[in-house]
Amino acid sequence: MVDPPDPNVYDDVALMAMEDGSLGFPCLENSSLCLFSRKVNAEGDAEWMRCRAIKLEKVIPVANPDEEPVVVGCAEGVGVIFVSTDVGLFTIKLNSGLVKKVAESGKYFSVLPYMGFYTPVRYGLWTINHNASNV
């Protein structure tokens, strides 16, 4: 077991569902993005377990070393964490480690990604099914 993160990091976390369905959160500790997951031990007690750490200094640019990156959100179901620095807003894909700049620098406090899907209905099919159900 790893000790839970310092209580000071709780200002910059975003709760997320982990791949195994447990509750988790990413947080920043010493220039690393750490992922914690809530696990139940053999005695039945829940505890925070560090399941992964990513060294940010190698993957995300920072112009001013005094300005620390901030976790500002995550996209559930796709394994993406949003991290803001003084250079911009970045996404980190957890499964591949791919980092992408998605916005210019600014004050980001919380990023809530929205995903929507649209499936067009073909007029002819709808008409045939609709007319068949009215017979």
Could you tell me the strand content as a percent range?
35-45%
Helical content band: under 10%
State the total count of DSSP E strands: 8
Terminus-to-terminus distance: 65 Å
The biggest sheet amounts to:
4 strands, antiparallel
- What structural class results from the helix and strand content? mainly beta
User: How many structural domains are formed by the residues?
Assistant: 1
What's the rounded overall pLDDT mean? 79
Strand order of the largest sheet: 1-2-3-4
Per DSSP, the total helix count is: 1
> SSE order, as H and E?
EEEEEEEEH
What's this model, at a glance?
The protein is mostly beta strands. It contains 1 helix and 8 strands, in the order ββββββββα.
Any key phrases for this structure?
about 140 residues; mainly beta; four-stranded antiparallel beta sheet; flat
Task: Please give a structural write-up.
With 135 residues, the protein is mainly beta. It has one domain. The protein contains one helix and eight strands, in the order E-E-E-E-E-E-E-E-H. The longest helix is centred in the C-terminal third of the chain and has 11 residues. 19% of the residues are buried. The mean pLDDT is 79.
Question: How would you summarize the topology of this molecule?
Answer:
Layout: E1 16-17, E2 23-29, E3 32-40, E4 46-55, E5 70-75, E6 80-84, E7 88-93, E8 99-104, H1 123-133
Antiparallel strand pairs: 1-2, 2-3, 3-4, 5-6, 6-7, 7-8
